[in-house]
Amino acid sequence: MRLPHILAGAVAALSLAAPALAQDTVAIVGGRILTGTSVIENGTVVIRDGKIVSVGSGSAPSGARVIDATGKTVAPGFVAVDSGLAGTEVGAVSGTNELRNSANTLSAAFDISYGLDPWSFTLPVARLGGITRAVVVPQHPGSSGGHVHEDETAGAGDGGYQTPGLFAGQTAIINLGQGGDILVKPRVAMVAPFGEAGADIAGGARGAQFVLFKETMAEVRLYARNKSAYERAGLRDLSLSRADLEALIPVANGSMPLIVSVHRASDIQQVLRLAREEGIKLILDGAEEGWLVAGDIAAAGVPVLLNPISNLPADFEMRAARMENAAALNAAGVVIAIKGNEGSTHRAREARYNAGNAVSHGLPYGAAIAALTVNPARIFGMAGQFGQIAPGAAADVVVWSGDPLEPLSQPSAIFIDGVEQPLTSRALLLRDRYRQQTPMPPAYRN
Question: Which residues make up the CATH 2.30.40.10 domain(s) of the chain?
């Protein structure tokens, strides 16, 4: 049984590869700077106390540590959306997955932030793909990609107050800095599946889910107006637990966005209608047929989290999926954020490849960069705090060997909150350990 020792050794190696201490002032000079909203040639980024102090064409301040980025590209750290980073380790090992909850007595109140692991092996790998922040989302039957089993996610269990449950739980924003407290903000959005997945939860028909959703919102508002009566058992029986009712108050009053997984164009239109009727703040997730109703989405001011390489009619919800979806939505004025693959966990780093593919199918280059940086921050209420190279923003900065949307480009320096991160991961450490071992360790000589 050598596996536990190998894992322990890998953990120890990662802990020893601690990030460099933050310098008082760091100046990255001479690079092509992608601020997230513009481009500065031969620019200088100055970092101090975890923040970006200045960006422009000036020289490095006296006494600063200087990083020469001549011939390189300097970009904001990317933001992984609809992600499972730090919430799961091995999809096939249920004990390592904190993203799913099957107890219908606790659905909307499920708070994913309490299960996050700062030492997850998934974080360094994603970080090497330029990702410095992530929006971690509970899994549900309509989740995108990855190892998602409907009988192990919210809305699939038996018994409870509301059977089945409509909501998967609440998301959290994290940073990918090594070690320590990675939680940036908990409970930033609620999650619910619609379309086929939502219909299955509600009994098999889309119409049933919409009616059940509206009744749920009515109960939440009734509870919010009559908490004292609820406390003294003076209110009629409600279908949700108290914890779920409390969690849904911000959704019902429009202060917390609801991430809705939806794919078919007609489902998107009906969800937009539901949001108007109920005063709900929406974020669409998936929207593979969004290009067909891009004008409606734009008119509603609803952002979209999408994978631009979803272009196959995998089922009847995605008959019109196409590679030009991102370009069409952007052209219509929809704010988009580009996702990685298979739940943006083990393949989160591929978000930049997806953005590059979107560019090859009509999305402007600047819009693709924005869809990885400033747009996710804006969508989740963190505009100006990260996702861009601008004075006052968190110093999440990546120096790339070339164009960050080019697969062969690699980071030569990564800063998160102004702290330089190690350019390593468990996979690289294992590669180095066994690539040229002479002699091999004792356990491997036989």
Answer: 18-77+388-423
